[in-house]
Q: What sequence folds into this?
């Protein structure tokens, strides 16, 4: 399996992965024309076109190098465009007090905020179902962190990830039904579709700007607030191992949790090393994620290697070809 930047000809393959995904990805809409726009946006970002700047979006695909099939996607959103703020709900408390009655009550309140604007956001994680519980799921997600480590100047020191919130078997969200639906005459799936085809800003600007008292939501919505959907369990477990932590921020649509992480403290970024590469026929040792050091032609895959004390690593010839590496090139690697 090879991780690489998406290309124009990947449209049909990406569309197949997205359509098979059990939940809607707002960053990868199922509308073909809009999905093509996202691919083109990513291509301009990898080409480092100046106008991308704070709104760069890097979309990677995972490709079966034997069959050529696209089997997964993952992305990085720069999220630093002040004209497109990143909205979320922040959970705080209001203290209601009456000394005369000797009553003191702390009430949880949701505030609409865009204070996470500027945080680099990991997004667009989708994989074909047979691979979900395999080592390739880890490769697909963590390869983004290897890319971020190599090009730190492009990204913020704090990273964010929005996790899918609780949905029922019909794809409906109790949080949306209790809150957002009162301001839009549409169900959750339609609202999520509009956020992808238009923008989440469109939805956020229509939401109430005043604080939302959590006890006024339905019991189902209160229970769902900050809870990840069962289908996101593997994603959460992987991110927690990396060093991401829960926060006071929640998705404005389904109330799912937003995880935050300090870039340089994340496990993959801390453990990634760099050495020169030499081709070899050897194919044994521990499992590693290995990557080249190109931005526009980034490549990452899994292989077996033996790391020693020297400055040169022996890499299987077929893997070196897959990564487009020549003898003497630098490569980065991290244990799986």
A:
């Amino acid at each position: 399996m090879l991780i690489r930047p998406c290309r124009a000809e990947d449209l049909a393959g990406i569309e197949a992965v997205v359509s098979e995904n059990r939940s809607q990805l707002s960053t990868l809409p199922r509308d073909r024309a809009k999905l093509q726009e996202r691919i083109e946006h990513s291509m301009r970002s990898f080409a480092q076109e100046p106008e991308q700047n704070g709104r760069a979006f890097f979309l990677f695909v995972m490709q079966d190098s034997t069959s050529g099939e696209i089997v997964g996607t993952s992305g990085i959103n720069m999220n630093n465009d002040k004209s497109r703020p990143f909205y979320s709900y922040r959970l705080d408390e209001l203290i209601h007090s009456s000394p005369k009655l000797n009553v003191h009550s702390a009430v949880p309140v949701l505030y609409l905020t865009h204070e996470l604007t500027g945080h680099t956001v990991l997004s667009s994680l989708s994989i074909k179902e047979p691979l979900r519980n395999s080592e390739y799921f880890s490769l697909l997600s963590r390869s983004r962190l290897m890319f971020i480590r190599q090009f730190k100047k492009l990204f913020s020191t704090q990273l964010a990830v929005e996790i899918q919130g609780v949905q029922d078997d019909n794809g409906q969200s109790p949080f949306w039904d209790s809150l957002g639906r009162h301001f839009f005459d549409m169900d959750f799936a339609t609202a999520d579709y509009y956020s992808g085809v238009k923008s989440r800003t469109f939805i956020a600007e229509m939401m109430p700007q005043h604080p939302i008292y959590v006890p006024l939501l339905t019991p189902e919505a209160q229970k769902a607030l900050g809870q990840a959907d069962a289908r996101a369990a593997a994603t959460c477990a992987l991110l927690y191992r990396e060093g991401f932590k829960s926060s006071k921020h929640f998705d404005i649509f389904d109330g799912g949790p937003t995880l935050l992480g300090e870039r340089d403290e994340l496990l993959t970024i801390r453990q990634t090393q760099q050495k020169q590469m030499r081709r070899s026929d050897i194919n044994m040792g521990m499992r590693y994620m290995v990557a080249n050091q190109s931005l526009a032609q980034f490549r990452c895959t899994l292989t077996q290697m033996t790391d020693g004390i020297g400055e040169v690593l022996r890499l299987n010839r077929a893997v070196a070809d897959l990564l487009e590496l020549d003898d003497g090139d630098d490569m980065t690697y991290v244990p799986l």
Residues 275 and 310 are 9 Å apart (CA to CA). DSSP finds ten helices and 15 strands in the chain. The chain has a mean pLDDT of 89. The first strand starts at residue 2 and ends at 5.
